[in-house]
Protein backbone atom coordinates (compact mmCIF):
# COMPACT_ATOMS: atom_id res chain seq x y z
CA UNK A 1 0.00 0.00 0.00
CA UNK A 2 1.41 3.35 -1.03
CA UNK A 3 1.61 6.09 1.60
CA UNK A 4 1.80 9.77 0.78
CA UNK A 5 4.63 11.51 2.66
CA UNK A 6 5.49 15.19 2.87
CA UNK A 7 9.11 16.04 3.52
CA UNK A 8 9.94 19.62 4.40
CA UNK A 9 12.89 21.08 2.52
CA UNK A 10 14.90 24.23 2.84
CA UNK A 11 13.53 27.12 0.80
CA UNK A 12 16.14 29.52 -0.53
CA UNK A 13 15.40 33.05 -1.77
CA UNK A 14 16.01 31.78 -5.31
CA UNK A 15 13.38 29.07 -4.92
CA UNK A 16 10.92 31.60 -3.46
CA UNK A 17 11.46 33.88 -6.46
CA UNK A 18 10.95 31.04 -8.92
CA UNK A 19 7.82 29.88 -7.08
CA UNK A 20 6.36 33.41 -7.17
CA UNK A 21 7.05 33.83 -10.89
CA UNK A 22 5.58 30.41 -11.67
CA UNK A 23 2.48 31.24 -9.62
CA UNK A 24 1.89 34.50 -11.50
CA UNK A 25 2.43 32.89 -14.90
CA UNK A 26 0.13 30.01 -14.03
CA UNK A 27 -2.53 32.47 -12.86
CA UNK A 28 -2.32 34.30 -16.20
CA UNK A 29 -2.67 31.00 -18.08
CA UNK A 30 -5.76 29.99 -16.07
CA UNK A 31 -7.29 33.46 -16.43
CA UNK A 32 -6.71 33.22 -20.19
CA UNK A 33 -9.26 30.40 -20.36
CA UNK A 34 -11.80 32.66 -18.67
CA UNK A 35 -11.26 35.31 -21.34
CA UNK A 36 -11.61 32.65 -24.02
CA UNK A 37 -14.96 31.57 -22.55
CA UNK A 38 -16.19 35.12 -23.12
CA UNK A 39 -14.79 35.10 -26.65
CA UNK A 40 -11.98 37.52 -25.88
CA UNK A 41 -8.38 37.15 -27.04
CA UNK A 42 -6.37 36.83 -23.77
CA UNK A 43 -3.34 38.60 -25.23
CA UNK A 44 -5.50 41.55 -26.24
CA UNK A 45 -7.10 41.63 -22.77
CA UNK A 46 -3.70 41.62 -21.03
CA UNK A 47 -2.45 44.34 -23.39
CA UNK A 48 -5.44 46.46 -22.39
CA UNK A 49 -4.90 45.82 -18.68
CA UNK A 50 -1.19 46.63 -18.57
CA UNK A 51 -1.51 49.34 -21.19
CA UNK A 52 -3.21 51.48 -18.54
CA UNK A 53 0.24 52.37 -17.19
CA UNK A 54 0.96 54.36 -20.37
CA UNK A 55 -2.08 56.61 -19.90
CA UNK A 56 -1.57 59.54 -17.57
CA UNK A 57 -5.09 59.57 -16.09
CA UNK A 58 -5.02 55.81 -15.61
CA UNK A 59 -1.60 55.99 -13.96
CA UNK A 60 -3.02 58.46 -11.47
CA UNK A 61 -5.79 55.99 -10.62
CA UNK A 62 -3.25 53.19 -10.30
CA UNK A 63 -1.28 55.17 -7.71
CA UNK A 64 -4.52 56.12 -5.94
CA UNK A 65 -5.38 52.44 -5.55
CA UNK A 66 -1.80 51.56 -4.68
CA UNK A 67 -2.09 53.59 -1.45
CA UNK A 68 -4.63 51.42 0.42
CA UNK A 69 -3.21 48.24 -1.12
CA UNK A 70 0.26 49.12 0.15
CA UNK A 71 -0.88 50.15 3.62
CA UNK A 72 -2.88 46.95 4.06
CA UNK A 73 -0.14 44.85 2.46
CA UNK A 74 2.79 46.07 4.54
CA UNK A 75 0.74 45.69 7.69
CA UNK A 76 -0.03 42.11 6.77
CA UNK A 77 3.67 41.38 6.17
CA UNK A 78 4.22 42.03 9.88
CA UNK A 79 1.30 39.84 10.94
CA UNK A 80 2.33 37.02 8.62
CA UNK A 81 5.93 37.21 9.83
CA UNK A 82 4.59 36.54 13.32
CA UNK A 83 2.64 33.57 11.90
CA UNK A 84 -0.65 35.34 12.55
CA UNK A 85 -3.13 35.15 9.69
CA UNK A 86 -4.85 38.50 9.80
CA UNK A 87 -7.69 38.22 7.29
CA UNK A 88 -9.35 41.27 8.82
CA UNK A 89 -7.61 44.20 7.15
CA UNK A 90 -10.85 44.94 5.30
CA UNK A 91 -12.76 45.47 8.53
CA UNK A 92 -9.88 47.35 10.14
CA UNK A 93 -9.84 49.71 7.17
CA UNK A 94 -13.57 50.37 7.60
CA UNK A 95 -13.21 51.09 11.31
CA UNK A 96 -10.49 53.62 10.50
CA UNK A 97 -12.85 55.22 7.99
CA UNK A 98 -15.65 55.39 10.58
CA UNK A 99 -13.52 57.13 13.18
CA UNK A 100 -12.12 59.54 10.61
CA UNK A 101 -15.69 60.41 9.62
CA UNK A 102 -16.62 61.02 13.24
CA UNK A 103 -13.75 63.47 13.63
CA UNK A 104 -14.56 65.20 10.33
CA UNK A 105 -18.29 65.65 10.91
CA UNK A 106 -18.98 65.57 14.61
CA UNK A 107 -15.90 66.53 16.63
CA UNK A 108 -15.30 70.22 17.34
CA UNK A 109 -11.56 70.77 17.06
CA UNK A 110 -9.35 73.47 15.54
CA UNK A 111 -9.22 73.02 11.76
CA UNK A 112 -5.45 72.55 11.60
CA UNK A 113 -5.69 69.57 13.99
CA UNK A 114 -8.53 67.78 12.19
CA UNK A 115 -6.54 65.78 9.64
CA UNK A 116 -3.78 64.70 12.08
CA UNK A 117 -6.46 63.63 14.54
CA UNK A 118 -8.28 61.69 11.82
CA UNK A 119 -5.08 59.76 11.04
CA UNK A 120 -4.38 59.17 14.72
CA UNK A 121 -7.85 57.84 15.52
CA UNK A 122 -7.90 55.88 12.26
CA UNK A 123 -4.76 54.06 13.34
CA UNK A 124 -6.09 53.52 16.86
CA UNK A 125 -9.43 52.25 15.56
CA UNK A 126 -7.87 49.77 13.14
CA UNK A 127 -5.42 48.63 15.81
CA UNK A 128 -8.20 48.17 18.37
CA UNK A 129 -10.26 46.14 15.88
CA UNK A 130 -7.22 43.89 15.31
CA UNK A 131 -6.43 43.74 19.03
CA UNK A 132 -9.59 41.74 19.78
CA UNK A 133 -8.73 38.67 17.67
CA UNK A 134 -5.07 39.03 18.70
CA UNK A 135 -5.99 38.63 22.37
CA UNK A 136 -8.38 35.78 21.56
CA UNK A 137 -5.58 33.97 19.72
CA UNK A 138 -2.79 34.65 22.22
CA UNK A 139 -4.82 33.99 25.38
CA UNK A 140 -7.44 31.43 24.33
CA UNK A 141 -5.92 29.88 21.21
CA UNK A 142 -8.86 30.99 19.06
CA UNK A 143 -8.31 30.66 15.31
CA UNK A 144 -7.56 34.18 14.08
CA UNK A 145 -8.61 33.39 10.51
CA UNK A 146 -12.19 32.88 11.68
CA UNK A 147 -12.33 35.81 14.11
CA UNK A 148 -10.73 38.38 11.79
CA UNK A 149 -12.91 37.28 8.89
CA UNK A 150 -16.09 37.51 10.97
CA UNK A 151 -15.14 40.96 12.20
CA UNK A 152 -14.94 42.18 8.60
CA UNK A 153 -18.68 41.60 8.25
CA UNK A 154 -19.38 43.27 11.58
CA UNK A 155 -17.46 46.37 10.47
CA UNK A 156 -19.23 46.45 7.10
CA UNK A 157 -22.64 46.18 8.75
CA UNK A 158 -21.68 48.94 11.19
CA UNK A 159 -20.82 51.24 8.28
CA UNK A 160 -24.13 50.52 6.58
CA UNK A 161 -26.02 51.08 9.85
CA UNK A 162 -24.43 54.51 10.28
CA UNK A 163 -25.05 55.74 6.73
CA UNK A 164 -28.64 54.47 6.69
CA UNK A 165 -29.30 55.61 10.24
CA UNK A 166 -27.81 58.24 12.57
CA UNK A 167 -25.16 59.58 10.17
CA UNK A 168 -27.30 59.71 7.02
CA UNK A 169 -26.70 63.05 5.33
CA UNK A 170 -29.54 65.51 4.96
CA UNK A 171 -27.95 66.97 1.83
CA UNK A 172 -27.70 63.71 -0.12
CA UNK A 173 -31.28 63.59 -1.50
CA UNK A 174 -32.10 60.31 0.14
CA UNK A 175 -28.90 58.46 -0.76
CA UNK A 176 -27.31 56.53 2.12
CA UNK A 177 -24.21 58.66 2.48
CA UNK A 178 -23.08 61.01 5.20
CA UNK A 179 -22.82 64.71 4.47
CA UNK A 180 -19.64 65.82 2.76
CA UNK A 181 -16.66 66.54 4.97
CA UNK A 182 -15.68 70.17 5.55
CA UNK A 183 -12.75 71.28 3.40
CA UNK A 184 -10.44 71.17 6.42
CA UNK A 185 -10.99 67.39 6.48
CA UNK A 186 -10.04 66.90 2.82
CA UNK A 187 -6.58 65.55 2.09
CA UNK A 188 -4.65 67.52 -0.53
CA UNK A 189 -4.21 65.76 -3.87
CA UNK A 190 -1.83 66.04 -6.80
CA UNK A 191 -3.52 68.30 -9.39
CA UNK A 192 -5.74 66.55 -11.95
CA UNK A 193 -5.55 63.27 -10.00
CA UNK A 194 -7.08 61.69 -6.93
CA UNK A 195 -3.65 60.88 -5.46
CA UNK A 196 -3.82 62.04 -1.85
CA UNK A 197 -0.11 62.50 -1.45
CA UNK A 198 0.09 62.72 2.39
CA UNK A 199 -1.25 59.17 2.68
CA UNK A 200 1.08 58.04 -0.11
CA UNK A 201 4.03 59.42 1.80
CA UNK A 202 2.86 57.71 4.99
CA UNK A 203 2.58 54.40 3.09
CA UNK A 204 6.04 54.63 1.54
CA UNK A 205 7.72 55.75 4.77
CA UNK A 206 5.92 52.99 6.68
CA UNK A 207 7.23 50.39 4.23
CA UNK A 208 10.81 51.52 4.85
CA UNK A 209 10.36 51.73 8.62
CA UNK A 210 8.75 48.30 8.86
CA UNK A 211 11.55 46.78 6.79
CA UNK A 212 14.04 48.34 9.21
CA UNK A 213 11.96 47.09 12.15
CA UNK A 214 11.92 43.52 10.86
CA UNK A 215 15.56 43.30 9.82
CA UNK A 216 17.50 45.60 12.14
CA UNK A 217 15.79 45.65 15.53
CA UNK A 218 15.35 43.29 18.46
CA UNK A 219 11.58 43.59 18.16
CA UNK A 220 11.73 42.47 14.54
CA UNK A 221 13.97 39.54 15.46
CA UNK A 222 11.52 38.45 18.15
CA UNK A 223 8.59 38.70 15.73
CA UNK A 224 10.39 36.56 13.17
CA UNK A 225 11.48 33.93 15.70
CA UNK A 226 8.00 33.75 17.23
CA UNK A 227 6.59 33.25 13.75
CA UNK A 228 9.05 30.57 12.72
CA UNK A 229 8.95 28.33 15.80
CA UNK A 230 7.02 28.99 19.00
CA UNK A 231 9.01 26.44 21.00
CA UNK A 232 12.32 28.02 20.06
CA UNK A 233 10.92 31.47 20.84
CA UNK A 234 9.72 30.43 24.30
CA UNK A 235 13.03 28.69 25.01
CA UNK A 236 14.81 31.94 24.11
CA UNK A 237 12.59 33.89 26.49
CA UNK A 238 10.53 35.56 23.75
CA UNK A 239 6.86 36.19 24.54
CA UNK A 240 4.90 34.73 21.64
CA UNK A 241 1.73 36.36 22.97
CA UNK A 242 3.27 39.83 22.92
CA UNK A 243 4.61 39.22 19.41
CA UNK A 244 1.15 38.26 18.15
CA UNK A 245 -0.53 41.29 19.75
CA UNK A 246 2.14 43.73 18.57
CA UNK A 247 2.03 42.40 14.99
CA UNK A 248 -1.76 42.64 14.89
CA UNK A 249 -1.79 46.17 16.33
CA UNK A 250 0.64 47.38 13.66
CA UNK A 251 -1.23 45.53 10.92
CA UNK A 252 -4.64 46.79 11.98
CA UNK A 253 -3.41 50.32 12.55
CA UNK A 254 -2.00 50.64 9.05
CA UNK A 255 -5.23 49.29 7.56
CA UNK A 256 -7.07 51.91 9.61
CA UNK A 257 -4.89 54.63 8.08
CA UNK A 258 -5.85 53.29 4.65
CA UNK A 259 -9.48 53.84 5.61
CA UNK A 260 -8.73 57.43 6.59
CA UNK A 261 -7.12 58.00 3.20
CA UNK A 262 -10.16 56.68 1.36
CA UNK A 263 -12.74 58.86 3.11
CA UNK A 264 -10.59 61.98 3.46
CA UNK A 265 -8.72 61.76 0.15
CA UNK A 266 -11.10 60.10 -2.32
CA UNK A 267 -14.76 60.12 -1.25
CA UNK A 268 -14.88 63.02 1.27
CA UNK A 269 -17.75 61.26 3.05
CA UNK A 270 -18.63 57.86 4.42
CA UNK A 271 -20.42 55.65 1.90
CA UNK A 272 -21.29 51.99 1.47
CA UNK A 273 -18.64 49.64 2.83
CA UNK A 274 -18.11 48.24 -0.67
CA UNK A 275 -17.60 51.78 -2.00
CA UNK A 276 -15.07 52.74 0.65
CA UNK A 277 -13.01 49.62 0.02
CA UNK A 278 -12.94 47.70 -3.25
CA UNK A 279 -11.60 44.66 -1.44
CA UNK A 280 -8.30 46.36 -0.54
CA UNK A 281 -7.98 44.43 2.71
CA UNK A 282 -8.33 41.07 0.99
CA UNK A 283 -6.08 42.09 -1.91
CA UNK A 284 -3.50 43.17 0.66
CA UNK A 285 -3.05 39.48 1.45
CA UNK A 286 -1.86 38.94 -2.12
CA UNK A 287 0.38 42.01 -1.88
CA UNK A 288 2.09 40.60 1.21
CA UNK A 289 2.41 37.03 -0.06
CA UNK A 290 3.72 38.07 -3.49
CA UNK A 291 6.34 40.17 -1.71
CA UNK A 292 7.24 37.20 0.49
CA UNK A 293 6.41 39.34 3.53
CA UNK A 294 9.01 41.95 2.60
CA UNK A 295 7.65 45.50 3.22
CA UNK A 296 9.92 47.07 0.58
CA UNK A 297 8.99 44.56 -2.10
CA UNK A 298 5.35 45.19 -1.19
CA UNK A 299 5.64 48.53 -2.98
CA UNK A 300 6.20 46.64 -6.25
CA UNK A 301 3.51 44.04 -5.64
CA UNK A 302 0.99 46.70 -4.56
CA UNK A 303 1.68 48.53 -7.83
CA UNK A 304 1.11 45.27 -9.72
CA UNK A 305 -2.23 44.67 -7.96
CA UNK A 306 -3.23 48.29 -8.53
CA UNK A 307 -2.68 47.80 -12.27
CA UNK A 308 -4.98 44.79 -12.17
CA UNK A 309 -7.63 46.80 -10.33
CA UNK A 310 -7.58 49.72 -12.75
CA UNK A 311 -7.00 47.58 -15.85
CA UNK A 312 -9.78 45.24 -14.77
CA UNK A 313 -12.18 48.16 -14.46
CA UNK A 314 -11.16 49.32 -17.94
CA UNK A 315 -11.80 45.99 -19.65
CA UNK A 316 -15.11 45.56 -17.82
CA UNK A 317 -16.33 48.66 -19.64
CA UNK A 318 -14.65 48.14 -23.00
CA UNK A 319 -15.26 44.39 -23.27
CA UNK A 320 -18.50 44.02 -21.34
CA UNK A 321 -17.07 41.62 -18.78
CA UNK A 322 -18.81 40.91 -15.46
CA UNK A 323 -18.08 43.11 -12.44
CA UNK A 324 -16.40 40.26 -10.53
CA UNK A 325 -13.74 39.53 -13.16
CA UNK A 326 -11.05 41.33 -11.15
CA UNK A 327 -11.94 39.41 -8.00
CA UNK A 328 -11.75 36.17 -9.95
CA UNK A 329 -8.32 37.14 -11.23
CA UNK A 330 -7.09 38.02 -7.74
CA UNK A 331 -8.47 34.75 -6.38
CA UNK A 332 -6.65 32.76 -9.05
CA UNK A 333 -3.38 34.52 -8.22
CA UNK A 334 -3.82 33.79 -4.51
CA UNK A 335 -4.66 30.13 -5.12
CA UNK A 336 -1.66 29.67 -7.43
CA UNK A 337 0.59 31.50 -4.99
CA UNK A 338 -0.40 29.33 -2.04
CA UNK A 339 -0.04 26.17 -4.13
CA UNK A 340 3.42 27.12 -5.40
CA UNK A 341 4.53 28.03 -1.87
CA UNK A 342 3.38 24.67 -0.56
CA UNK A 343 5.18 22.80 -3.35
CA UNK A 344 8.31 24.85 -2.75
CA UNK A 345 8.34 24.01 0.97
CA UNK A 346 7.46 20.33 0.77
CA UNK A 347 8.65 17.39 -1.26
CA UNK A 348 5.87 14.92 -2.01
CA UNK A 349 6.84 11.27 -2.13
CA UNK A 350 5.00 7.93 -2.28
CA UNK A 351 6.23 5.04 -0.21
Structure characterization notes:
This protein is mainly α. The chain has one domain (57-320): ABC transporter involved in vitamin B12 uptake, BtuC (Orthogonal Bundle). It has 14 helices and two strands; from the N terminus they run βααααααααααααααβ. The chain has a two-stranded antiparallel sheet with strand order 1-2. α8 (218-228) crosses α10 (240-267). The N and C termini lie close together (8 Å).
Structural features:
two-stranded antiparallel ribbon, ABC transporter involved in vitamin B12 uptake, BtuC, single chain, 14 helices, mainly alpha, 351 residues
What is the strand arrangement across the widest sheet?
1-2
Assembly form of the protein: single chain
Structural class by secondary-structure content: mainly alpha
Determine the CATH topology.
Answer: ABC transporter involved in vitamin B12 uptake, BtuC
User: Helical stretch count?
Assistant: 14
Strand content: under 5%
Largest sheet: 2 strands, antiparallel
**Helical amount:** over 70%
Q: What is the total number of structural domains?
A: 1
CATH architecture: Orthogonal Bundle
Amino acid sequence: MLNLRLERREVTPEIELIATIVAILLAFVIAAFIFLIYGINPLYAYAQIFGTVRKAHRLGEIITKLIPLLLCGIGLTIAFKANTWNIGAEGQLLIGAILATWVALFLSVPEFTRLPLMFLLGFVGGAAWAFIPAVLKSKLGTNEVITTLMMNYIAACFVDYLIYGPWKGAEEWGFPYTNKFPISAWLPTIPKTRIHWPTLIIALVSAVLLYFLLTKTTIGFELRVAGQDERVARYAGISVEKAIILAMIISGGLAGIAGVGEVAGVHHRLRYASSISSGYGYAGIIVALLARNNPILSIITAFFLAILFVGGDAIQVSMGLPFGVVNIFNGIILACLLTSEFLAKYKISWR
